[in-house]
Amino acid sequence: MSESSDQQVLDAQRGTAPTTHAQLAAWVEEVAALTQPQSVYWVDGSQGEYDRLTSELVDSGTFVRLNDDRFPNSFAAFSDPKDVARVEEQTYICSENRHDAGFTNNWMEPAEMKAKLRTLFEGSMRGRTMYVIPFVMGPLDAEEPKYGVEITDSAYVVASMRIMARIGTDVLRRMELTDAFYVPALHSLGAPLAAGEEDVAWPCNEEKWIVHFPEERSIWSYGSGYGGNALLGKKCYALRIASVMARDEGWLAEHMLIIKLTSPEGKAYNIAAAFPSACGKTNLALLDPTIEGWKAETLGDDINWMRIGKEGELRGLNPEYGLFGVAPGTGWGTNPNAMRAITKGNSIFTNVALTDDGGVWWEGMTEETPAHLTDWQGNEWTPEADRPAAHPNSRFCTPIDQIDMLAQDYYSPDGVEIHAILFGGRRKTTVPLVTQARTWSNGVFMGSTLSSETTAAAAGQVGVVRRDPMAMLPFIGYDAGDYLNHWDSITAKADPDRLPHIFLVNWFRRTPEGGFAWPGFGDNSRVLKWAIERIEGKADARETPIGFVPTGDSLDLTGLEGFTPADVEVAVNVDPEEWKTELASIEEWYGNFGDSLPQSLRDELAGLQERLRA
Ligand SMILES: Nc1nc2c(ncn2[C@@H]2O[C@H](COP(=O)(O)OP(=O)(O)OP(=O)(O)O)[C@@H](O)[C@H]2O)c(=O)[nH]1
Ligand SMILES: O=C([O-])CC(=O)C(=O)O
Ligand SMILES: [Mn+2]
């Protein structure tokens, strides 16, 4: 298309911005003028639109349509091999003052960053459609719905956003009623097309910037089409920007799953759990209990917005609409609930392998490995290959209401009372399977010093231990010390008797022989049962310097063949030598906070030092 007819399409679109929200219409026009797309399209969120967009993505080679019998209305996409995970090195918090980004974030002067971004976005959508996606995080009938509008030049992003958030005309109409505030979330692949130039299956740019302006509550994302870099309602809005909103408005935006467990006696407990990326949130959220009589229901698998309720209770709500789950390791044996949800269809898979009969496969999906596959990079693959068939960070994107075990409370705009919080990470050594905090502040200490080995969910080296406070290290949108103080001040407003009980868990500990010290997955229900029985004052525990761990026979091992109380002792062992090393690492971590560390946490550190010395 020639320059002048581009301009005509643009002008025509501008005249008909289908919204009475003047500020939004103006922003869309401003972005179109900057990025110079071929056309502007307002996403209505309908099924017909989704079907049309996905067909176009099939035609253009971005999507492969899967075998409709096994994966109805589902598609596979394959990214550029350099665009496979969140890019933390290129993720910025551009607050007015450097201090407000803290030591855990990259920072640049907002004006300098804006200038840099404007240059990159100039003409960045040439030859492409600019999609405008009105969306809301959390329920549309919330007291104050949390609106956003993502502008993107990626149809893959539009299709994925429709699964992950409530989007489209219904949301737009509600925003218009009050000229509501929304988070402007601008995304470009950074891959403009010249006239006549043929597109590639996964356009993106070598240069990537994931930038947040917390005071403005705006997001600019450039160069990546993948996951948390591009689906801006998720990590960018619902965690980084929302954490700043939460600080200012008196609530908490956390990287947590929420699960409801009901005991054989019919008593229900809602448990929130903060684990870093690729450390087991989606799996625990879809838990298939292996113990008799216990029922599990899903409320959320990644994000938990919490506030203090009218009776001083802590309430949590999942603001998402879909799952964006790690594919490898998700299988009929380990996570049948996820597999049932996925195979209902309506899903987008990214960077998984293809089977010869038009299905998808990834490591751990089935016990038997298919004899022949097409790997995520399009190469022939057989079990003899020395590389995985699916990328370790390959993902399924599936509507949340396809989960059979979804709790009815998921739809409640008030959320649910949280009775327990788990903090967990991926540690081969040192950290026991489960440890109950001595007190609330001791539990916050556990969260603030949480550690985990890095995973494929972020670009960079895998398997390096790092501190990851509340599993929020890459997602705190402001100063980390202020964040810990905010935790203190919010929860000080709760009824102390209704504060959740806190536990530290580690499903990933190894035995001296190298295997997992705990079977994990469905058997994690046994650990949750112990936690609930601790809350009820029923289960036995042994006191250690770091907290209370199960005695060998206090974990219910019924039906767990070949696993004995002696194995429990190995899984919960607290080794004084390992903990001396751990303490030094915690001290070093806390050193980063300087004066901003809350006194309650200083006291907790002193207590731990003393108990380890004794
Ligand atoms: N050994 C073991 N592995 C687990 C367990 N739970 C999850 N995993 C594996 O850990 C990986 C990540 O699990 P997920 O549940 O997808 O992690 P997540 O926290 O939801 O990850 P993000 O979506 O990136 O935030 C998968 O490969 C799982 O198979 C467990 O209890 N034991
Ligand atoms: O954001 C992503 O790309 C995927 C995700 O859930 C995470 O990394 O925690
Ligand atoms: Mn997940």
Automatic annotation (TrEMBL):
UniProt-listed CDD domains: PEPCK_GTP
Enzyme class: lyase
Cellular localisation: Cytoplasm
PROSITE patterns: PEPCK_GTP
Domain annotation Phosphoenolpyruvate carboxykinase C-terminal P-loop: ranges: 251-611
Domain Phosphoenolpyruvate carboxykinase GTP-utilising N-terminal: 27-247
Protein name: Phosphoenolpyruvate carboxykinase [GTP]
Pfam families in alphabetical order: PEPCK_GTP, PEPCK_N
Pathway it works in: Carbohydrate biosynthesis; gluconeogenesis
Origin species: Arthrobacter halodurans
Catalytic residues as annotated in Swiss-Prot or TrEMBL: C279
Binding residues for substrate: R86, Y226, G227, G228, S277, N393, S394, R395
Reaction(s) the record says it catalyses: oxaloacetate + GTP = phosphoenolpyruvate + GDP + CO2
Annotated InterPro entries: PEP_carboxykin_GTP_CS (IPR018091), PEP_carboxykinase_C (IPR013035), PEP_carboxykinase_GTP (IPR008209), PEP_carboxykinase_GTP_C (IPR035077), PEP_carboxykinase_GTP_N (IPR035078), PEP_carboxykinase_N (IPR008210)
Cofactor(s) this protein cannot do without: Mn(2+)
Annotated cofactor note: Binds 1 Mn(2+) ion per subunit.
Residues where Mn(2+) binds: K235, H255, D302
HAMAP family assigned: PEPCK_GTP
Purpose: Catalyzes the conversion of oxaloacetate (OAA) to phosphoenolpyruvate (PEP), the rate-limiting step in the metabolic pathway that produces glucose from lactate and other precursors derived from the citric acid cycle.
Family: Belongs to the phosphoenolpyruvate carboxykinase [GTP] family.
Binding sites annotated in the UniProt record for GTP: A278, C279, G280, K281, T282, N283, R395, R426, F521, G522, D523, N524
Assigned EC number: 4.1.1.32
